[in-house]
Design brief:
Blueprint lengths: L2 E3 L4 E10 L10 E5 L4 E10 L9 E5 L4 E10 L3 E5 L6 E7 L10 E4 L8 E3 L4 E4 L65
């Protein structure tokens, strides 16, 4: 577990990549554990490739009556996204996950493929920028009350990308906005002295 939010505690994580936590051999039980009256808010987070116990682990474990809010984030670890000991429903808005059976509600959530190469540039090497054609591009709308206007690289949020059909809006989800200029950075055909 990387964080435990205790009674009346509050943890807000924004513009972050959370990866490579736990141990390959046995894994932990959860990345986040929320206790009675605790509050966990994830906004523009990318969560992937953490080593949690697949039999009983979850990315977020609500061990009491805590509140969980996940906005504009990508949660692609292999175990359950959410596990609760009570009946408290989490709030997920503009979130991409591998499964949604572990939590209910009418939130804006999309279940995607297990193939991380369709979403990230090179997750095996730790590059969690969005790849061209990623379903996370132009996925969301501006979340009401959000104060995040730049991504982890300092790029502005909400850029409408040419050639991409907006799913819910023009905002990319996860820690990084897709930067169309980066697509050609490693392309030798288009590299010359005139650019």
């Amino acid at each position: 577990m990387i964080a435990k939010v205790l009674a009346h505690g509050e943890l807000n994580i924004a513009n972050s990549v959370i990866t490579d936590n736990g141990q390959v051999s046995d894994g932990g039980s959860s990345l986040f554990a929320i206790n009675d009256n605790g509050l966990l808010t994830l906004e523009y987070a990318t969560i992937a490739a953490n080593y949690l116990n697949l039999d009983f682990g979850a990315v977020i474990a609500n061990e009491g009556s805590g509140e969980v809010n996940v906005f504009s984030s990508i949660v692609l670890d292999e175990q359950l996204v959410y596990k609760a000991s009570g009946l408290v429903q989490p709030h997920f808005e503009c979130v991409m996950v591998r499964e949604r059976a572990s939590f209910g509600g009418d939130d804006t959530v999309t279940v995607v493929t297990n193939d991380l190469a369709q979403i990230f540039v090179d997750s095996a090497q730790g590059d969690y920028h969005l790849t061209a054609g990623s379903p996370a591009i132009d996925y969301c709308y501006d979340i009401e009350g959000s104060t995040i206007d730049e991504d982890l690289d300092g790029e502005p949020r909400g850029a409408d990308h040419s050639g991409t059909i907006d799913f819910f809006g023009t905002y990319d989800i996860g820690a990084y906005e897709f930067d169309e200029d980066d697509v050609f950075d490693d392309d030798l055909i288009f590299k010359d002295g005139f650019e």
